[in-house]
Write a structure and sequence with these properties.
This protein has 14 helices and 19 strands. By secondary structure, the protein is an alpha/beta fold. The chain binds iron/sulfur cluster (SF4).
Length: 475
């Protein structure tokens, strides 16, 4: 049967995956009879927005295959981990979590454990999973997530563990089912992979070279989302500013934004992430003219020292970054600028950290994610000399963190008294009579209100700033 199902499978995607989705129902029903209940799944996502979007697609595939989503991994029949490998300590935590999952008593000896995503692109990780975590049944990487139905079909049929990790990305496959976490907002991939090879970063090795999706496909997805009630789209790519470089036409990111702006129903546009070296004046102008592009930009600095930026292969200097950020502030005064900073890069000195703090003070970041450098095997920086002892890192990290917190606190309060448009996202976690929503500048505001406002864009007066969020009232 497996042979004939595979022999008759369409060659083209996504038809092939819809074929396996259809064919898996008989196998699933047989398994459900054995188990005595409807089969459930749970997806755990680690890492960035790209992974979150991939998980929505895998949730869509599993749902279409007839599995029911479960709130918890304990007791789920399919437990899927979509992993991130950006930091080594996150990898170690994941192994610990995986080990404890196996230790947890489960009556379900038929449980299927799946590990996919960035960790699975690393041969060392795959080796460790295969050798020490034999209860992991299916391993695949970042390039073939669209094949989830086919892999599960194969496993349900013969029960043999599968490792299917591709070295290189294949074609971009469109029209894979997807279930959004929020009905009113959605991520939209505009490109995959990265060509920049920053010396500390593992992403180009695990996500492959940069490939842009055709603008027509992106716009088709956005139109579809708008007709489905989505008000806010987040355009996703490792470096959205180089969108279009791999296409044969003259499409680029600012032009794409202008096209998305024309779509009725889409009221807000966000994007993530912008590499400073590719951020053009054209983009600043489009943002400035736009009624829909949110007043927030995440512009990773990484270091304020030109010497360290060169060692990181970031391809901008301290001055170029600072000039760019201040130009954005000048042109779009309401904008919120957030950033990423790494402390403890090999060879970094206290004077280099002083440069980073200098940029923090000049740019007045609204927020920053500050990380301790984590060596990733296979990257050039992992081979560099000049590693720091923990005491030095703790001291320098604290200096950077204090500077970041001082700036962001003084920046956050500047909107007090304003009336801002807010996309209401959810009931407040701490007080059910309050709602929580996000402003255009990405800051959260909490205010009294009815759940019927969730998913709507409403006006809220900002009454009080409490550090990184506001309390407000509907007007
Ligand atoms: S731009 Fe640099 S940091 Fe960002 S994903 Fe690419 S290599 Fe990594």
């Amino acid at each position: 049967m497996l042979g004939s199902v595979f022999e008759n499978a369409p060659v083209n995607e996504p038809e092939r995956q819809y074929y396996f989705i259809d064919h898996s129902s008989a196998l699933r029903a047989e398994k459900e009879r054995k188990l005595g209940h409807a089969m459930t799944f749970h997806v755990t996502t680690f890492g960035c927005q790209m992974n979150a979007r991939d998980s929505e697609k895998m949730t869509g595939i599993l749902t279409q295959m007839g599995f029911c989503e479960s709130d918890s991994e304990t007791g789920a029949d399919i437990v899927l981990f979509n992993t991130c490998t950006i930091r080594d300590n996150a990898n170690q935590k994941f192994y610990g979590h995986l080990g404890s999952l196996n230790g947890k008593s489960t009556k379900n000896s038929e449980r299927i454990v799946i590990v996919c995503g960035c960790m699975a692109q690393e041969s060392e990780c795959v080796k460790r999973l295969e050798e020490s975590y034999g209860f992991v049944n299916i391993i695949f990487g970042t390039h073939n997530i669209y094949k989830l139905a086919e892999l599960i079909y194969r496993y349900l049929y013969d029960g043999r563990n599968i490792t299917d990790v591709w070295d290189k990305p294949g074609d971009i496959v469109e029209d894979i089912p997807s279930i959004r976490k929020y009905p009113f907002k959605s991520g939209v991939n505009i490109m995959f992979g990265c060509n920049n090879y920053c010396t500390y970063c593992i992403v180009p090795y695990v996500r492959g070279n940069e490939r842009s999706r055709n603008a027509d496909e992106i716009l088709r997805e956005c139109y579809h989302l708008a007709s489905d009630g989505v008000k806010e789209v987040m355009l996703l790519g490792q470096n959205v500013n180089s969108y279009g470089n791999s296409l044969e036409n003259d499409m680029n990111f600012p032009k794409l934004l202008k096209e998305v702006e024309k779509i009725d129903g889409i009221e807000r546009i966000r994007f993530m992430t912008s590499h400073p070296k590719d951020l053009s004046d054209e983009l600043i102008q489009v943002m400035k003219d736009s009624k829909k592009i949110c007043r927030h930009i995440h512009l990773p600095l990484q270091s304020g020292s030109t010497r360290i930026l060169t060692a990181m292969n970031r391809r901008y200097t301290k001055e170029q970054y600072t000039d760019l950020a201040l130009k954005i502030r000048r042109e779009i005064p309401q904008i919120s600028i957030t950033t990423d900073i790494i402390v403890g890069f090999p060879g970094e000195t206290t004077r280099d950290v002083d440069d980073t703090i200098d940029v923090i003070k000049k740019v007045h970041f609204d927020g920053a994610f500050t990380f301790v450098y984590s060596p990733r095997q296979g990257t050039p920086a992992a081979e560099m000399e000049g590693r720091h002892d923990p005491e030095w890192i703790r001291r320098e990290f604290d200096r950077v963190l204090t500077a970041v917190q001082d700036e962001s606190k003084s920046m956050a309060g500047r909107f007090t008294g304003n009336i801002e448009s807010v996309l209401v996202e959810e009931i407040n976690e701490k007080d059910e009579s309050y709602l929580s929503g996000r402003m255009s500048n990405n800051l959260m505001v909490h205010f009294p209100g009815e759940p019927s406002f969730i998913g709507k864009i409403i006006n809220v007066r900002l009454l009080e700033c409490r550090g990184f969020y506001y309390m407000g009232e509907i007007v």
